[in-house]
Specification:
This protein has 12 helices and 12 strands. It is α/β, with parallel strands linked by helices. It has 2 domains: about 100 residues, Alpha-Beta Complex (Aspartate Aminotransferase, domain 1); about 220 residues, Type I PLP-dependent aspartate aminotransferase-like (Major domain) (Aspartate Aminotransferase, domain 2). The strands form 3 sheets. It has a 7-stranded mixed β-sheet with strand order 2-8-7-6-5-3-4, with helices on both faces. The protein has a 3-stranded antiparallel β-sheet with strand order 9-12-11. A two-stranded parallel sheet has the order 1-10. The chain is globular and about 65 Å long.
Length: about 350
């Protein structure tokens, strides 16, 4: 991992803010530049290549353990979620953890005709009942890095006939995930997947696809899309490609490279790396008299230290401060020295 990372990344700061946005690998930057220059020069390849979209789809599928036929591509988690929200009948009950990310919740609440309930993350499985149509949650909480008990949620949903929507934006790329175990997963790829903004993925099981209409379908969603430029699409793709959004080619030309890098390293190796750095940081925080949110996540939150974020930024340590809480997130380009630098900046 060290050799690959040193060749691909050279941050000019102590960057501990992947939960906000991941760093782009050098190979990704070069791919985006190449396409942009082709477009500026008027070359035939300047419009973008669907092969890069298909390569990204396949790579993401391997990273999350599903067949590529179950993956749709897009540009925004909120758009994927809105598609799912629009498919529910009026009056359906949806359950969320308290304080989950707004893009997971808002597409349901704006409808105004759904029954929305909230429960503490630790009790979300117990909140699923016989009247629940869907439970939606992030695999890892954006605010404080807590890891959800997805197995318990899946078991509760199965017992009551509910579907499960998992947002993997804060987990895909470092936390092993079997996306096929859930009816839907959505992933913003610009964080731990290190892709350019404008890259996102939706996974849909074959069973869930039966009740999910392709409400925003365009010609890219057609079976044999080259013949579907004009008039209504008469036959949609039989795979999850029927839910594709028109891709941002600059983003996907880069995404192909970023996802390939993650495959080369492996999610299990990245998980071990990230969680070891987080454990080192938690131990150091305790020695300084601070109490981080407990757990073994690769994201560390420290209540009461959110106002230290500007001070850390001036010291060249980039983190996030929200709601009075400091959030520090580790990824494959971080090292022990980054942990120690952050602790030094937080020392009295």
């Amino acid at each position: 991992m060290d050799t690959l990372s040193s060749a691909e990344f050279a941050p000019t700061s102590t960057y501990l803010n992947t939960s906000s946005c991941g760093l782009l690998p050098r190979r990704t930057v070069e791919a985006v530049k190449k396409l942009a220059e082709s477009g500026a020069d008027g070359r035939p390849d300047g419009a973008g290549d669907f092969d890069t979209v298909e390569a990204s789809r396949a790579s993401f599928a391997r990273l999350v353990g599903v067949h590529e036929d179950r993956v749709a591509v897009g540009g925004s988690v909120a758009v994927h979620v809105a598609l799912i929200a629009a498919s529910l009948p009026a009056g359906a009950e949806v359950v969320f953890p308290e304080g989950d990310f707004s893009s997971v919740i808002t597409p349901f609440t704006v409808r105004g005709d759904l029954k929305v309930r909230y429960a503490p993350l630790a009790g979300i499985a117990d909140a699923v009942g016989p009247g629940t149509a869907l439970v939606g949650l992030s695999a890892v909480q954006s605010f404080d890095g807590r890891v959800a008990d997805l197995a318990a949620v899946r078991a509760a949903a199965t017992a009551h006939g509910a579907r499960v929507l998992v947002d993997a934006s804060q987990s895909a790329g470092w936390l092993p995930l079997d996306a096929g175990a859930y009816d839907y997963t959505v992933t913003g790829a610009f964080k731990y997947l290190l892709c350019p903004r404008g890259t996102s993925f939706l996974t849909v099981t074959a069973e869930a696809q039966e009740s999910l209409p392709p409400a925003h379908a365009g010609w890219v969603a057609a079976q044999g899309s080259a013949g579907s430029f004009y008039g209504p699409v008469e036959r949609f793709a039989e795979s999850a490609r029927r839910y594709d959004e028109p891709p941002s080619f600059l983003a996907y030309h880069g995404a192909e490279q970023s996802l390939a890098l993650l495959e080369e390293i492996g999610v299990d190796a990245i998980h071990a790396h990230n969680t070891a750095l987080a454990a080192r940081f938690r131990e150091g925080l305790s020695e300084l008299g601070h109490t981080p949110v407990p757990g073994d996540s690769g994201i560390v939150a420290v209540p009461g230290l959110g106002d230290r974020q500007p001070e850390l930024a001036r010291a060249g340590v980039l983190v996030t401060g929200r709601g009075g809480t400091l959030r520090v997130s580790f990824h494959l380009y971080n090292r022990d020295a980054d942990v120690d630098r952050a602790l030094e900046a937080l020392a009295p």
